[in-house]
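Subject — a protein and its fold
Encoding — discrete vocabulary of local shapes:
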Amino acid sequence: MFRQYYRENSIKLSYLIPILAALMIMGGSCRIPQKTTYFSSIQKDTSVKYFVSDKIESKIRQGDNLAISINSLSLEENARFNSTVIKGTGETDKVAVPGYLVSKEGTIKIYRLGELQVEGLTRSELAEKLQHDLKPFLKEPLVNVAYLNRKITVLGGVATPKVLNLDEERITLFDALAKCGDISEKGNADQVFVIREVKDEKHFKKINLKDLSVFETEWYYLQSDDIVYVTPDYAKLEREEKRRNLQITLSLIASGASLIFLLLNRFL
């Protein structure tokens, strides 16, 4: 009787078990990922009164690589001033531009002017100083100063951790995260750390991106050599690992059961 019953239903069962196992695995894997939500603590329309200013310029310091472009109506002299050429470093190759490395003494050397003390000046202050000092040698000089080697690092629970070249004077925390693909589903938006070096000290600032307080702190704007670390949500990681292990276990059980039924069908 058992053999007769088995023969009548074995083919159906041999197809049914893999299908059921596949449905269980798909049900475990096809879940909707949770997206990071910024400012979730805000319950109604509001405004920020003490927004941090973006007008502050950073100071030139030792080790900075400065791109100094000098142009004027004295065409022959322009080429001499812009003869020192290097390439900037960053995410992509930069166009060759004049580069001046600030020495340990805080100085750079410029044609005609010799050694100049530049540490502690802003870029605009240095540009104004050079335009003034070059007037005896150039007709209507125009100077532009930029940074070549300033960068920030973004790590942790973001889609693509990377080192970002800081082309502008500064960059906001949100802009930096966007350049790295935003916070991933395994990152904690309310536990973001900015690590900043001030003289010989490392300062750590914990920032909650689910709250408006981020706009009220000077850490909203990142500075050169800042490190942004998005803390991973280890509970999410653990749940994801358990889910993967369950999928593997179900797959092995389904494969084993299917094999057993095929063997029984063959020998019985």
Observations:
- Residues 234-267 form the longest helix (34 residues).
- Residues 85-96 have pLDDT under 50 and may be disordered.
- The first strand starts at residue 65 and ends at 71.
